[in-house]
Amino acid sequence: MLTFQQAIDEAQQYNKRHALLGNGFSISCRPDIFVYGRLFERANFRGLSPSAKLAFEALATQDFEKVISVLRDTSVVLSAYKGVKGGLIKQLQEDADGLREVLVQAIASSHPDWPGDISDSEYANCRVFLSNFNNVYTLNYDLLLYWSVMHDADGKKIKSDDGFRTPEDDFDSEYVVWEPGTSRNQNIWYLHGALHVFDAGIEIQKYTWINTGKRVIEQVRNALEMNLFPLFVAEGTSREKLDRIMHSEYLAKGKRSFSNIQGALFIHGHSLAPNDDHFLKVIEKGKIKHIYVGLFGDEHSDGNKAIKSRALTMTHNRAQSKPLRVTFYDSDSARVWN
Questions:
Q1: In this structure, what are the phi and psi dihedrals at residue 85, rounded to the nearest 5 degrees?
Q2: pLDDT > 70: what percent of the chain?
């Protein structure tokens, strides 16, 4: 394998270099907090009625927003029917509120409270890593990427634009907004959404640390109390994730941007697992000429063998008229955080 620096040096032959970040990007920062696994798997349903968890099975989903919305809507509809016991309606409402708090606690247990939990030196190293790329795409919905590009204690600016702008009619707002027309120079893309991004119906809002001073968990809880859910893709399968993406203008535009990049793509901290096939297939069909895939630990471990196999499959599935090269590098040598 190459070292990360050797891979970057080799990739200088391409006009554009991009990054696709996976869970390993966050885990390498705080392995005791960030772990693999979906929010549903980390959620603690104790204290709720057994039916609250069974509702996920009935709807064949692991999406908290979908289940909470169905419970609320059902309670409203049943209240219009005579003969329906008030106890059932009350239980539906209590389960909806309870699941909202379960979601908050699941997020809280797997994320640092505030930007100061990460040291200046860790931010500085991460910014050096990010400065190698023209565009950064992340499949994570945590805030580490956002905190890193915003942290400028080292006095060094890096080019970063996530497409959000201050509302024209509300300069004192606690949030900034995203609109398709303001994202022409966007180079930071949350392909699966993020915890600080909310779909407010008429606009996509991003709550900012600078404007609010509130910790991430407080922002999420306050938004949920206003029936605003974080815009992030928590579904389990690739098909479910793609369906959620294509029903959001914000997420769909990120996918379109990713499909149009050219040059070299560094895939860092990602296992190339089947549940993200909706983006791996974009690479297969896209315009990227060379992918550099990070491997962590023993190159010959079963996990890394699986990554290699999937990466080589991408090259085989690419049309011969526009071949795709693949090179592997030692992801630990990138020293993203230290």
A1: -65, 135
A2: 94
17 beta partners: 264
Instruction: State the sign of the Cα–Cα–Cα–Cα dihedral 144, 145, 150, 155.
Output: positive
Give dist(CA 100, CA 65) in Å, integer.
8
DSSP 224-275: HHTT--EEE---SSHHHHHHHHHT-HHHHHHHHHHHH-EEEEEEES----GG
Q: How, if at all, do strands 135-138 and 17-21 pair?
A: parallel
Which helix (H) or strand (E) is 217 found in, with range? helix 216-225
- pTM given for the model: 0.86
> Could you please report the per-residue DSSP string of 280-322?
HHHHHHSEEEEEEEEE-S-TTSHHHHHHHHHHHHHHHHS-TTS
Residue 293 one-letter amino acid = V
Question: Partners of 207 in the beta sheet?
Answer: 175
